[in-house]
Amino acid sequence: MMDKELLLYNYFSNQLTAEEQKQFDDLLKTDVEFKEQFDFEKNLKEVIREKETDSLKSKLIGFEKDIEDTVPVRELPKRNYQKWAMAASIALLVGLGWLGYNNFSGTDYQELYNDNFQEYPNTVYAITRGTETDSSLEREAYVAYETDDNAKAIQLFTELKETYDSESVNFYLAQSYLKNNQLTEANTLLSEVLEKEGEFAPQALWYISLSYIKSKQKEKAIKSLNLLIADGRYKKNEAEVLLDELD
Fold first, then answer.
1. Residue 56 burial (10 A CB sphere; 0-12, 13-18, 19+)
2. Alpha-carbon distance 157 to 161, whole Å?
3. Which one of 46, 90, 194, 219 is separated from 52 by 20 to 30 angstroms, measured CA to CA?
4. Which CATH number is correct for 112-246, 2.115.10.20, 1.10.443.10, 1.25.40.10, 3.30.420.40?
5. Which of 167 and 7 is assigned the larger pLDDT?
6. Runs of H (alpha helix) within the chain
7. Cα–Cα dist 225/208, whole Å
């Protein structure tokens, strides 16, 4: 297993491979100290980002004021002056070495995904002590799903799909693929669920939006989030927040 500190570094720099992402997700669930360290660094990053944003705004306003004092507005058309003033302000910040890469590095898609993804609970097949002797393929698939044995769940749901190609099987197989960081396979199945316009259609919109976010397909994510908001039956408020983050 990769060093935990290096895993954290690669996460916050958006450099995790699929295998490292799985290690990272497993540690978040099983290693209390790792989770505490992750939460601390995440909170610290957010505080720094907020302070840098406020400081950047203050500096830009200050530079624009200085420029306005030294360059008479009448010498430039208003629209051109505003563009020139902003460009000059940013150029000054870069020249001073104050403006780092991360200030304009854009949306942290991986962080947005991790903050919002939570597997959908099993609402289809009740697994109780009284059914422990039931060894049906369906039960084994949902047991694997609930215990996060993703590879086994994918295998069993795929077998189940061959004889029982239902909306619920497609949805939970897609969930298993998402948990296993196999986005292409998950999206194919979620699209099938959406085409049926059945019980799981709103949930499928939410999860395909998250998949698009993780794969940095911003326009597709925005489109599906808007559809989810218009539908209004599932995660409407969360979708609105995500849209604000993507804008």
1. middle
2. 6
3. 219
4. 1.25.40.10
5. 167
6. 4-12, 18-30, 32-70, 78-95, 109-116, 137-146, 150-163, 167-179, 183-196, 201-214, 218-231, 236-246
7. 9
Single-letter residue type at 229: I
Is the pTM value of this prediction over 0.85? no
Domain with CATH 1.25.40.10 in the chain: 112-246
Residue for token digits 């962080």? 111
Buried b (16+ CB within 10 A) or exposed e, 104-131: eeeebbbbbbbebbeebebebbeeeeee
> What count of Cα atoms within 13 Å lies in the side-chain half-sphere of residue 141?
24
- Apex 189 CA angle, 115 and 152, nearest 5: 80
| pLDDT tens column, 45-94 | 666 656 555 555 565 566 556 655 655 545 545 545 454 455 555 455 44
Q: Would you say how long the chain is, in residues? A: 247
pLDDT for 139:
93
Q: Both tokens of residue 10?
A: 């690669």
Mean per-residue pLDDT, 20-25: 85
pLDDT digits (tens, 9 = 90+) for 23-42: 888 888 898 888 888 887 77
C-beta separation of 147 from 166 below 8 A: no
pLDDT beyond 80 at 232: yes
Closest among 166, 39, 9 to 31, alpha carbons compared? 39
Structure token pair of residue 26: 């497993």
Pairwise CA distance, residues 144 & 15, whole Å: 29
Closest residue by Cα to residue 54 from 13, 90, 103:
103
Please provide the average confidence, as pLDDT, over all residues in the chain: 80
